[in-house]
Every structure is written in structure tokens, then in C-alpha cells.
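Duplicate of #3305? Posting structure anyway:
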């Protein structure tokens, strides 16, 4: 998992991708500032907003990377994928093309992101009455690609807080699992280190003895 640690504080990077106009910025602004601006303000370059949340009782920073101008897959630098702890792939439920293109975005995730990245597929703008992508289609695509599925309306505040809440929970689960795995690894290598030290301290005689013992056992077994 990709985290950066500065003095004791943890930062997780979340990347938001998807076609232009699907509502990535609106989603982010709703989550970070609880605001919605109906005017189409184009994101320029890569915009980053952050929000602090609690993780294991400690404050952690979720850094959200909003993309623009790179909204055709293949245009976004692979380092953004690599640095991501979580990725939100958004499509507009009223725009079939943005949903078809989601598959292309998924290929980018598979190619460049880390295997343990937390992936969300999010259908946006469900307040509109022009829906062309059903909830089941979205769910199915998400399931087939190991992604968590959600639908939102940044305008009507629907599902946004819940989506980010779940994302943070998943990051937390992943973080704890990773931490535990690292502890186990550390303990194992410490034990292995002890053994090496043991052998080194007892000199080559011990090593010879071990070899000899092995051979003796083998002999007894075969005869
Ligand atoms: N009705 C509706 N319109 C939305 C919603 N989210 C975004 N929009 C509109 O869709 C347009 C594009 O949104 P924007 O966030 O800039 O998309 P981006 O290019 O993916 O960042 C803007 O005019 C938004 O006001 C939503 O939840 N409901
Ligand atoms: Mg934008």
C-alpha cells in the first residue's frame, strides 16, 4: 500500500478517474466541502484536495487527486496509479459511453496500479431522469473487476459521504492487514536472524554436526 509518513502523520492517496464531465470534481467538492456548483468549472491539470479522517484513533490525511485533461485513458501518468491507495472510477449513469469507457480505465488500473489498491466503481448523477445504465449493469461490471460499487448524486448529496466512508474503511482494513503482515515478516526474519546468530556463535562445529545428523537420519530411514 502506498502511504507517506511525515513525522507521525499518515497520508493516503486516492485517485479519481473517469471520462470528462462525469462529475468527478463535483463528487470531490461535495465530499470535501459539502458544496455543489452547477456551473461546469473545468479542472485544470491535476487538482488535489485533502480531508483528515481518523484511523486507529489517529488523524490521517486522505489526499484526493482529481484529474483533468488526462480524461482519456492512456493520458494519465502511470505514477498517479502507482501512488494510489484507493482509486475511484466514475461514470455517468446517463451516459452510456462513459460506462463503456470505464472498461478502458479498468485496464489502466490493472496495468499500472498496485495489486492491493482499493477500487471503487461509482455511477454518478442519479438525480437526473435520463438514466441509461442500470444499477445492475454497474454492479455486475464492478463485481467482475474486483471493485466496490456505489451510485451517487453530488447534486442531491446522495451516496457521496457513504462512498468515501466505505473507501476509508477499506483503506483502514487494508492498512491493518498490511501492518500485521509486516509485523509477522519482521518477527520471522528476527527469528531467522537469531538462528543464524546461533549457528555463527557456536561455530562451524555446529554446522558440521547438523549436516552429520541429517545424513545419519537419512541413512537410518533408507536402511
Ligand atoms: N444533475 C447533476 N449534475 C451533476 C452532478 N455532478 C456533476 N454534475 C454536473 O456535470 C457537469 C460536469 O461535472 P464535473 O464535476 O465538472 O465533471 P468532471 O469533468 O468529471 O470533473 C457539471 O455541469 C456539473 O454541475 C450530479 O450529481 N447531478
Ligand atoms: Mg473535473
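Output from current build:
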Amino acid at each position: 500500500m502506498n502511504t507517506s509518513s511525515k513525522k507521525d502523520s499518515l497520508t493516503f492517496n486516492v485517485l479519481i478517474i473517469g471520462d470528462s464531465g462525469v462529475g468527478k470534481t463535483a463528487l470531490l467538492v461535495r465530499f470535501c466541502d459539502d458544496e455543489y456548483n452547477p456551473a461546469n468549472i473545468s479542472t485544470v491539470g491535476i487538482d488535489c484536495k485533502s480531508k483528515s479522517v481518523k484511523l486507529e484513533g489517529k488523524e490521517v490525511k486522505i489526499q484526493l487527486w482529481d484529474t483533468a485533461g488526462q480524461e482519456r485513458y492512456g493520458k494519465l501518468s502511470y505514477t498517479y496509479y502507482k501512488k494510489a491507495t484507493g482509486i475511484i472510477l466514475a461514470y455517468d449513469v446517463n451516459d452510456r459511453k462513459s460506462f463503456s469507457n470505464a472498461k478502458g480505465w479498468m485496464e489502466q488500473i490493472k496495468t499500472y496500479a498496485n495489486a492491493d489498491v482499493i477500487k471503487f466503481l461509482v455511477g454518478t448523477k442519479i438525480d437526473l431522469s435520463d438514466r441509461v445504465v442500470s444499477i445492475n449493469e454497474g454492479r455486475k461490471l464492478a463485481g467482475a473487476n474486483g471493485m466496490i460499487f456505489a451510485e451517487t448524486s453530488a447534486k442531491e448529496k446522495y451516496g457521496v459521504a457513504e462512498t468515501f466512508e466505505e473507501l476509508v474503511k477499506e483503506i483502514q482494513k487494508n492498512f491493518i492487514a498490511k501492518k500485521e503482515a509486516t509485523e509477522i515478516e519482521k518477527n520471522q526474519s528476527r527469528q531467522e536472524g537469531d538462528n543464524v546468530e546461533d549457528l555463527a556463535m557456536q561455530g562451524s562445529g555446529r554446522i558440521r554436526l547438523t549436516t552429520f545428523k541429517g545424513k545419519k537420519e537419512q541413512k537410518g530411514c533408507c536402511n
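Confirmed duplicate; merging threads. The pocket of guanosine-5'-diphosphate (ligand 1) is lined by residues 20-26, 38, 40, 43, 124-125, 127-128, 153-155 (CB under 6 Å). The chain has two domains: 2-173, 177-220.
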